[in-house]
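Researcher: Let's try something more involved. This one mixes different molecule types, so please make sure each is placed in the same coordinate frame as the others.
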Amino acid sequence: MKFNRRQTLAGLTALLGTAAMPRLSFAQDAGVLRIGALNPITGAGAPYGSGMQKMILQAAKLVNDAGGAGGRTLEVFAEDTQTQPQAAVLAAKKLIEVNKVNAILGTWSSGISLAVMPLTNEAGIPLFNTSGAPALSVAPANEKHLGYRFQATNDRFGRAFAKIAEKEGFKRPATMAFNNASGIGNTEGFRKAWEANGGEVVASVVYEPSQPSYRAELQKVLDAKPDVIIMGSYLADTTVILREWYQTGEENKWIIPAWAANPKLAEALGPDVVEGIIAVDSISNEGSPAFAAYDAAYQEALGQPGLSNVYAAMTWDMVIVLALAMEAAGPGADIAAITAKLHEVAGPDGTKVSTFAEGKEALKSGPINYEGASSVLDFDEFGDVTPDFSASVFTGGEAKRNYIVKI
Amino acid sequence: MTGFAELLFSGLMSGLIIGLAGLAVTLVFGIARFSNAATGDTMTLGAYGALVGSAFTGSVILGSLIGLAAGALASVVSYLLVFRPLQGRSPISSLLASIGLAFFIRAIIGLVFGHDQNVFQLDIVRPIKFAGIRIQPNDLKFAAVAISTLAVVFIILHLTPIGRRMRAVADNPLLAKVSGISPRPVMLALWSIAGAVSAIAGIILGMKTVVSPESGWEMLLPAFAAAVLGGIGHPIGAIVGGLLIGVAQELATPFVGFTYKIAVSFIVLLLVLLIRPKGLFGRSEGVR
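Model: All components are placed in one shared frame. Result:
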């Protein structure tokens, strides 16, 4: 029997394939906990995604260098969501089925977190996200209480918007929302808080993405003569809307989430158009020792200040909180037992700690309270946190922080 | 009433962009006989070409001409490397290849230019008021460019020898061949025209909105809809189809709201196809 080159190659490949298979499916060694870093490396979240991923890797390295958590080290598998739900679902499937991860960390944008959560629920593993949609708090999305949110909910953003609008003395607000859970969550959160205070919203519009023009949408809002327009939007649509608004010559003010009203917006439109826009952001736990540790790691990995990426501070905290929960749950604990410890290690009671090493040490003598880099990180019953917010005003093309709002 | 007129105008502007993209789709379909899913990404490529061109030359007009050339060139190259080898196979092969090509172009653009949005630095100007209607001077310029593009395409198709040959091939490829029309120059002309038209659509879209690697791809569905609505393979039909879709979307908004305006354009498409399955201008295709 003779083999030609092609048959030999085919045979060898098949052999290699079968040899690799058991490794893929059964290589679940006891000393490692696998986590998936599922971040928006490309697409609309790209300005934040790489930093988010690098901070997961960096924090995991820190945990491993400190001798691991609960007798185990962390192994990170990184995937790109492309900031698209379809791609994110495929990547999550791969992480769960092929890499057998025990937790997925760092999904950005609500559409993606909402799409991935059924998969993580099905697999019985937690999903740590940085998205705002109110729907992520409750059933059906969070029926198993496996979703943990490190970002403020859009509802909380809306409350912050209402506080700021009140402080600035606006009387006739209108809203414009990108048609998704996050955009509408922002403006509806605002409406609820504003109307609870006896105010009235004079007009509201929900618009579709990727339109060649938003003039009709804008016109409807402007016809109500608002003194401020509250946005639930993203960068690209905000760019088009503000350009068209400026061209109408109207002079109302704007309150816009900072993920849309960022330096890129000023760069695209020029200082005159963005002058006076109020950009609202949830802020990291600046000034805390945990933030200082994160900031140093971010500077080293990306050469930029940690302040430039609030989401990276969140992913940093995700790894540390997970590792602390592993440590608290003890060696050999399964992911359900680890998840059950999350509230405990982050919650308001216990010794305050700011790093993993500190927490690991303090856990020997009693309960701990990890005060994170992104917020003080006290999860409520829905797994949500309440950070503070900043209001920045654009002057001369640059956003300068004016004041901080607590809700 | 002025509100209505402004909606109409804004619908016409959106419609012109959709129509130009639809024209590129329909030209390729009429002659090469498949739906080119890379049309959207050729638009994006043209817009990026124009961005780079404007940065180099300092002039948006010169830059746009460079973008136009980039679109035409990319289109011809994709014909030579991808679609010519697939000629004679089922149109499905070419369609699938064009989807692959679309991903390829988008990925390259993402790699080279990143995924952040880019904008054309155009002067922001106040609108002129005409009978109470606010009109953007830039929109008038875009409309002029779009209409002259259409004029040039129709002049090429109807008044030049190569255009006559293109129409002959579109009409009956076999008969054209036996009449001694060589397919190669026809195909090269077709692909460069389709590429240039896509690029112009992409550049205008980019100037009105923002340029990102996904911007053209997101226009593909409306472009296909315009081509189908007008009767696929029919150039005037694509333009009329695009305008109809744009105007229907905008004019419906006072009644159905902004969230459902896209659905309205597809309802129009459905209705037209129910009454005239071959599209507005299409001829019914008999057995070949």
